[in-house]
């Protein structure tokens, strides 16, 4: 298992080359989107948000937002350290927090959009900028794969009840 510094170093070193893979098809905007997604995925949305890690500390005072996530998921669980599922879970968690904040703040005179309007804006953005948003999503997932490969196993351990039952079946 790699250290936090090793994960960070590899993320910084590979972000630009990864982004440049998208340049021939989508130009500079695609390269920047993919590289940015890769950096954000490796430095802020790391699979290690289920522990007290560099990624958690980078959120500063907002790291408290990740406390329920950390408490609810054991480290290296299927929901945090799985290809696709881990990234989708972290993005879903952030989306749920954004919708909750929107629901709580929309009634106040702060100009915060209500959840339906927030969802409509997100959908409109998706429809207008789909190729670039896909670059960002692929970058987020690629940095997660880098992290998992550096940890030595891109597939997480099964939950304990499943491990016991599969061991019994082999006997």
Protein model, in words:
By secondary structure, the chain is mainly α. The chain has one domain (4-170). 68% of the residues lie in helices and 0% in strands. It is built from 8 helices and no strands. It has helices at residues 4-20, 23-43, 54-58, 67-72, 85-105, 115-128, 130-150, 160-170. Helix 2 crosses helix 7. The protein is globular. It starts with a helix and ends with a helix. The model has no long low-confidence stretch (mean pLDDT 87).
Which tags fit this structure?
single chain; 171 residues; mainly alpha; 0% strand
Summarize the structure.
With 171 residues, the chain is mostly helical. It has eight helices and no strands.
């Amino acid at each position: 298992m790699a250290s936090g510094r090793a994960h960070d170093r590899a993320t910084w070193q590979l972000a630009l080359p990864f982004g440049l893979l998208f340049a021939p098809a989508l130009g500079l905007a695609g390269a920047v989107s993919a590289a940015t997604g890769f950096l954000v995925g490796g430095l802020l949305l790391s699979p290690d948000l289920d522990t007290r890690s560099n990624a958690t500390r980078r959120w500063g005072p907002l790291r408290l937002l990740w406390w329920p996530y950390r408490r609810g998921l054991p480290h290296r669980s299927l929901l945090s350290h799985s290809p696709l599922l881990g990234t989708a879970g972290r993005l879903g968690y952030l989306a749920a927090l954004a919708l909750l904040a929107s629901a709580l703040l929309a009634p106040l005179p702060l100009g915060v959009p209500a959840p339906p309007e927030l969802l409509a804006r997100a959908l409109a953005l998706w429809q207008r900028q789909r190729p670039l948003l896909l670059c960002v999503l692929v970058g987020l997932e690629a940095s997660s794969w880098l992290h998992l490969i550096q940890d030595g196993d891109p597939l997480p351990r099964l939950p304990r009840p499943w491990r016991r039952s599969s061991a019994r079946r082999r006997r």
